[in-house]
Amino acid sequence: MKDFLGYLETLVARRRAKPGNPERDVLTRLIQGEVDGEANGERLTETELLHNCIFLLNAGHETTTNLIGNGLVALARHPDEKRRLIEHPN
Hints:
Structural class: mainly alpha
Number of helices: 4
Strand order of the largest sheet: 1-2
Shape: elongated
Oligomer: single chain
Low-confidence stretches: none
Number of strands: 2
Mean pLDDT: 90
């Protein structure tokens, strides 16, 4: 966890020095502190920013893991659909 926080701190420092496009870069948007597309002067603390980064990473990982797992279970329970998918992947 210490190594990951160190990585995030470095990434945040780089993004503060050279912001990305806030339309495409979530970290830049979090750093800039926008609400409904408008800068409001409120910024996340460093701890809040790092915790949000960890939360977003974990949420994405959890969602992907569950989606893949549930898809495999569904295919195992429905072999005809699995066969159909193999025969017609499009």
